[in-house]
Structures are given as C-alpha cells and as structure tokens.
Amino acid sequence: MARPAVFLDRDGTIVREVDYLREVSQLRLLPGAAAAVRRLNEAGIPVIVVTNQSGIARGMLTENDLRHIHDELRRRLASRGARLDAIYYCPHHPEAAVKAYRKRCRCRKPAPGLFRRAAREMDLDLARSFAVGDSARDLEAGRRAGCRTVLVRTGYGARTERECGDGCAEAVADDLSGAVDWILERIGRA
Q1: Which domains occur in the chain, in start order?
Q2: Quick one: how far is CA 65 from the chain centroid?
Q3: pLDDT tens-digit map of 10-19
Q4: CA–CA separation, 16 vs 3, rounded Å?
Q5: 111-143 pLDDT per residue, tens
Q6: What is the pTM of this model?
Q7: What pLDDT score does 161 carry?
Q8: Which of 125, 129, 137, 160 is 20 to 30 A off residue 88, Cα-Cα?
Q9: Active site residue 11
Q10: Is 33 within 8 Å of 78 (Cβ atoms)?
Q11: pLDDT band for position 189 (50/70/90)?
Q12: Counting beta carbons within 10 angstroms of the beta carbon of residue 10, is it exposed (0 to 12), middle (13 to 18) or buried (19 or more)?
C-alpha cells in the first residue's frame, strides 16, 4: 500500500540559502533541520529532497560536484541521527549555458515531475504527502503533485510569504521544525 511522505526543498529549507550552492565548503545545515528530519524518520515517514539544480545547466557545477554535496549533506544529517530516504534533482534550465541541459522538462519545479517520479519509484501516496519549501515554486510543485503544502520562513520564505500572502500554502512555519510539528499533528504521529 502506498504510504505518505514528506518532500523537502533543499536550499533555504534544510540548508542555508547561498544562491547556487556549488561546493561542499558552502554547505551549512539550518538550525534544527537535522532534528526535524530525525523526527520524521522516527515517525516512519519517508523524507525526500526535491531540488532544482540549474547551477549544473549554467555551468557552475557538475553533477559529480552535486553528488559530493549530497553525500556530505547525508553525512552531516547522519551524524545527528537523521537520514534522507532519497534525493531527486532537476539539472535542467530552458536557457542553459550547457547545451546538454538546455530544455523545458517535467522535473523542474514548479512542474511536479520529481514528486511523481519519487511516488512511482518509492510507492508513495502523493495525496497523503506533504511538500515543504521556502518559495512559491516549491509549493506550486507540491500542489500540482497533489500534496499538502507548508511554507517555511527560512531561506526566501519570509519574502515569499509577503509576496503571496495566505494563499501561498496550507500552513506557514518559522522553520522546518515548525513545519514538522504541523505535519505530525495532521497525520496523528506527534
């Protein structure tokens, strides 16, 4: 039977927003993020990162560089007792400098392709799942996939909240920890 999951944006939600995270030395977990992920793990809820990585298409980093960043992200979370069940990323951009990545795709948020792919591959119920992010693009992708949405005020979230107001997400939280509180209450695992 398909199960619910929590889909997290990476930059500004789990890690500090730096405008194109290009190397491991820039990686900083946001305060409380690892503990929030761990709480989802302990509740038995899959935690999946869905992230646009147009820096690859722009020639700022390679997919191998991104692999190193994600390996380090997993290591840092693991050192705090937390884990990600999967990471899905979109390396494309319609105006990419690197021709191989120049395309309009179904995986670049706000398109829901990354969510749908994860649901197929991991047997997830999108209608019972949640999408958490700091941008309207993150939330729109989650909505289009059929997930409930939570805006966090970290990263670009405070600006996103000002720009789109109450209609941006089903809930707004100060950070990932607050978002996880809200999610766990909704699925009865608080």
Answers
A1: 6-186 (3.40.50.1000)
A2: 19
A3: 999 999 999 9
A4: 29
A5: 999 999 999 999 999 999 999 999 999 999 999
A6: 0.96
A7: 93
A8: 160
A9: yes
A10: no
A11: low
A12: buried
